[in-house]
Write the structure tokens for this entry.
Amino acid sequence: MLLKIFIVEGKEVFLMKKFVLCAAMALALLSSCGVGNGGTATKTNKLKGAYDNAVSVNGSSASACLTLSDSALMGDTNPYDIDDYYNATYTAVVQGVNTYLGLDSSIWSEMIQTRALDGRVSEESNGYKVSWTYHPDQGLQVTWRVA
């Protein structure tokens, strides 16, 4: 049903027609935002879920070694850059994020075998791109992103 409002400069203005057009445009925009089955927004929310899960399981240890941004989750097993330092909890947090995101277990195997001279290593698994580097004085530094 069209509702004629008024005539401006010889043109008829229909309120309902404009409303339906605006609603259709809004729906088209929302449906193309990547939300839904496996969309980018869903994967990004899963990065936040991985962060929240790590904090829930490991408390302040997780928040000390994980940083969440709009587009990535970063982990650092030696956030204070103490020479030749190893923290089993921080390492378990990184492994837990991999597990939460459903990454291939071979990625964790590669991570713990990385040497300083390997530089930055990258892999993709389950819709995520994970990259990491290792140095004895800086630990394992990992970045998880939506692929």
User: Anything to note?
Assistant: Residues 1-6, 13-37 have pLDDT under 50 and may be disordered. DSSP finds five helices and seven strands in the chain.
